[in-house]
Design brief:
heterodimer, A: mainly alpha, two-stranded antiparallel ribbon, B: mainly alpha, two-stranded antiparallel sheet, 2 strands, 62% helix
């Protein structure tokens, strides 16, 4: 019984309760950092760590936070965790952190974070909150990775910076799709994922 | 005709419900109603307004209206090609060259578009809608003749799926499908859609007239492209050999450009057919020209001192895709405004925005495509406010009594 609940908390956000394709949260960063696969991976990882940590901290504090100032407390905690992650990135993965520029800092305003803190961490135990944070972070990350995979492959013919589409294709007249480099195509790709996802999970289809 | 009718009647049971090939009923239905006016009409009970013209006949009128521009476009492809290699091939060879060059584009656009349309209709159990009949012919007419065929195929597939089928198919689309094809090509493959290498077929077609050396001084830029990138304030433009040309060359259309857009005369012939048969609204077409002319005139009088702002207003109307867009694209009954006042506003703003983009954005030589797509978004909003204003006016009259 208990393990079932754990499983649901951890795996639910990967599929039927996905923050991006079902709740449609965190779309802005999904557009901004998915031109290439590498920043998308780092972004997904950062968000996962931040949501999990912030969830645990808020969950530990949940009984001592006065209700009237809870948003401010949540923001302070998130900002602290984000700053730590940002500093770590600057120290150990400088070029990626330059590529991600303001978007790491902007995780503070990512709707998924505040959503999970408000909806879950404020009323659940630390262990559950940790699982929930991990689940939502990974649920966000896999969408980003799928979008970035197609955008980098079709937009510049590369994956993680390695040339995937062979030179002979280009000589035969193949041209990279410039639209993939634009944010509008990220939206269309997210829409395609939602399309496939709703087609598989018929119970999620809106009437 | 009788012979065809016999075949269709004989095949009908096979495709009807319970027949062997009933799974392909929508394909059969599509062909049957394409060949013959359907017998099934609405019930006699109640009062219904009947019209002899169904959407297949409407679409056929648009196709007929496109034929002058299509034929001229073919001739112009050949004309520009033989001009570029400095040969004179005679009228029929010139036309035939263009016909062969354009044919693959028409085939690719129809095969890809209709393929998707048939599949979706079959899958959803709908009847096949005829909207692609026109779109499929528009697509080859609005792309440069050097666009690789696979790009046209990708763009057509994208447009049919994302601009049409996801909205519910023919009649439900927000954006003009042919223009979405073009805008996809324009942003996805900018090198194939702009610049001075793409407008004139310098290579041969089907192995005919391959590898010919170009004449000295060849320049493949369109008149609008030349004026748009000009560094001097004088709005002069030349043909591909460098001879200066003017308004009448733009009007008769022996200039480089997208296939169907160059000849304003052929487009006006199409406009007469469309407006005469009541298929398209003269209000939209006229107001696009009005909006464009007034905006260009304003730039002539008070604009910045650049070549494109100095280009006389009447030249703006005959160069580039302006006339083609005004006659065939803006008037699309699905994506344009539907209220009568709304049509004036909608058309006028298309003209204004097209010229604004041309003059003020050096990155885009042509603004017609973007103007129409932008106004497609606002068509519903314009209609809404026109209707609201009407309600308000009449309410006032009622309350005054």
């Amino acid at each position: 019984m208990k393990s079932d609940k754990f499983k649901e908390t951890l795996l639910g956000p990967l599929n039927k309760n996905n923050p991006v394709v079902v709740q449609v949260l965190g779309i802005c960063s999904a557009l901004a950092v998915t031109v290439q696969l590498k920043p998308a991976l780092v972004m997904g990882l950062s968000v996962t760590i931040i949501v999990a940590l912030a969830n645990v901290i808020i969950s530990l504090l949940r009984n001592t936070i006065p209700n009237s100032v809870r948003i401010i407390v949540q923001l302070v905690v998130v900002a602290a965790v984000v700053t730590v992650v940002s500093e770590v990135l600057k120290a150990f993965a400088y070029d990626v952190s330059v590529q991600l520029s303001v978007y790491i800092g902007l995780i503070i305003t990512n709707c998924i974070l505040m959503g999970r803190l408000e909806a879950f961490a404020m009323s659940n135990k630390p262990l559950d909150s940790l699982l929930d944070g991990l689940g939502n972070g990974i649920g966000y990350a896999w969408i980003l990775i799928v979008v970035a995979f197609f955008r980098e492959l079709l937009g510049s013919g590369k994956l993680l910076g390695f040339q995937i589409i062979p030179e002979s294709f280009y000589e035969a007249g193949y041209v990279d799709n410039g639209l993939m480099m634009m944010p509008s195509m990220a939206l269309i790709l997210v829409a395609c994922i939602i399309w496939v996802h709703r087609y598989i999970n018929k119970d999620l289809q809106e009437k | 005709m009788k012979f065809l009718k016999n075949i269709v009647d004989k095949l009908k049971p096979t495709f009807s419900e319970g027949g062997k090939l009933s799974m392909f009923h929508s394909v059969f239905d599509g062909f049957e109603t394409f060949l013959f006016v359907p017998n099934s009409t609405s019930k006699k009970i109640g009062s219904q307004i009947h019209d002899a013209i169904d959407s297949k006949r409407t679409m056929i009128m648009v196709v007929i209206a496109l034929i002058p521009a299509l034929l001229f476009g073919m001739y112009n492809i050949g004309y520009q090609h033989f001009l570029a290699i400095g040969q004179d091939a005679g009228f029929w060879a010139t036309f035939f060259f263009g016909f062969l060059a354009l044919l693959p584009y028409i085939l690719v656009s129809y095969i890809v578009g209709l393929g998707i349309e048939f599949t979706v209709a079959q899958f959803k159990g709908h009847e096949i809608a005829e909207g692609f009949l026109v779109t499929g012919l528009l697509i080859p007419l609005i792309v440069p003749i050097n666009t690789p065929l696979w790009m046209v195929a990708v763009a057509t597939a994208f447009a049919v799926i994302f601009a049409k089928e996801v909205y519910g198919g023919t009649g439900y689309n927000i954006f003009n499908v042919a223009l979405v094809t073009r805008v996809f090509l324009f942003f996805a493959y900018p090198t194939a859609m702009s610049g001075d290498k793409v407008w004139v077929r310098t290579e041969g077609t089907w192995g005919w007239s391959n590898g010919q050396p170009l004449v000295d001084g060849f320049t493949g830029a369109t008149p609008l492209g030349q004026v748009g990138t000009s560094t001097t304030p004088a709005p002069v433009f030349t043909d591909i050999l460098g001879n200066p040309i003017g308004f009448w060359d733009g009007f008769f259309g022996l200039i480089p450009g997208s296939v169907g857009e160059t000849c304003t005369l052929a487009i006006l012939l199409g406009a007469i057919i469309l407006i005469g048969t009541g298929v398209s609204s003269w209000k939209v077409t006229l107001s696009v020209f009005l909006g464009g002319a007034l905006t260009a005139l304003a730039f002539n009088l008070w604009g910045p001192d650049t070549a494109i702002a100095n280009l006389p207003w009447y030249n703006h109307l005959v160069l580039g895709g302006f006339a083609f867009g005004a006659v065939f694209m803006a008037t699309d009954p699905v994506t344009s405004a539907r209220t009568e006042t709304g049509k004036w506003i909608y058309g006028f703003l298309i003209g204004v925005i097209a010229i604004l983009v041309r003059v003020l954005n050096p990155g885009y030589a042509e603004g017609m495509m973007l103007a129409i797509l932008l106004m497609n978004i606002f068509a519903g909003l314009i209609d809404y406010y026109v209707v609201q204003a009407n309600i308000k006016r009449r309410m006032k009259r009622v309350n005054a009594k």
